[in-house]
Specification:
Number of helices: 4
CATH class: Alpha Beta
Largest sheet: 9 strands, antiparallel
Structural class: alpha+beta
Distance between the termini: 22 Å
Strand content: 35-45%
Number of strands: 17
CATH superfamily: Aminohydrolase, N-terminal nucleophile (Ntn) domain
CATH topology: Glutamine Phosphoribosylpyrophosphate, subunit 1, domain 1
Helix content: 10-25%
Radius of gyration: 17 Å
Length: 269
């Protein structure tokens, strides 16, 4: 399986991270050499960096680590290819436009038979690559399109949460379904099951850490991750804990909505 990382903060900040360190912290460095990607929100748009190569061999990774743009919301993915060739089109995160803003999706798991599942079909949005993850993203956007197209305003959190919750429940029927989805306003994170240290597939699929920084001169440090100094509220979500602090594990099937470094709601989807 792959590695996921997301950051949400109250104020724009620079998030720098070592993709290789994140993979190493999971104990699976050698297995995560099939691509990497990072999306940094800039208002309703995203600065998206992706390569279908090992992070440790990439000059672009070094650039992103040192010069990643300031943001209040970032999503990163390290790939281990289980479906689809090692190509750019199969490299996450995926980003698509809907209602004049970029939506971003990254998935960790194995969705067996998704292409034959009628309620996870699509019409307007179609995959560029061949992964089950991108198929899932297109199916989610197909559901979201009706909601966003029906109004000129930002749909309510409850309306969006209802769709994402049902989508998560449908994915879980197919296999491990940890994902991060952002619409430029809110980050939705769903934790299910993943390969654990003992080799079994079990919960938790994600972990969450919330930090409030009162010292303007003190950056937020985690293994492979640094959030720039400044009075700040920061929330990190990752596949595995990145510090020795009290990261909260997601319950199996838990869906969390996050904005501006705070949890808006958490529920079992």
């Amino acid at each position: 399986m792959c590695e996921l990382l997301a950051m949400s903060s109250r104020r724009p900040t620079r998030l720098t991270f070592s993709l290789e360190t994140l993979a190493a912290h999971s104990g699976r460095t050698g297995r995560y050499r099939d691509g990497w990607g990072a999306a940094f929100y800039q208002d309703n748009d995203v600065a998206l960096f992706r390569e279908p190569t090992a992070a440790g061999d990439s000059a672009l990774v070094r650039f992103v680590e040192a010069q990643g743009p300031g943001t209040t919301l970032a999503i990163s993915h390290i790939r281990r290819a289980t479906r689809g060739a090692v190509t750019l089109s199969n490299t996450q995160p995926f980003a698509r436009e809907l209602a004049g803003r970029m939506h971003v999706f990254a998935h960790n798991g194995d969705l067996s038979g998704i292409e034959r599942t009628g309620n996870l079909a699509f019409d307007h949005y179609r995959p560029v690559g061949t992964t089950d993850s991108e198929h899932a993203f297109c199916a989610l956007l197909e559901r979201m399109r009706g909601l966003w197209d029906s109004t000129s305003r930002l749909p309510s959190l409850d309306e969006r949460l209802s769709i994402v919750s049902q989508f998560a429940a449908d994915l879980r029927k197919l296999g491990p379904s940890n994902f991060l989805y952002a619409d430029g306003d809110t980050l939705f994170a769903h934790g299910h099951r993943r390969i654990q240290a003992a080799g079994d597939i079990a919960p938790p699929g994600l972990f969450l850490l919330s930090r409030r920084c009162a010292d303007a001169d003190e950056p937020v440090h985690a293994v492979g991750v640094t959030v720039a100094a400044g009075f700040q509220e920061v929330l990190l979500i990752a596949s595995v804990p990145l510090t020795d602090e009290n990261w909260r594990p997601f319950a199996e099937g838990e869906l969390v909505a996050v904005s501006a470094g705070q949890v808006l709601t958490a529920e079992l989807a």
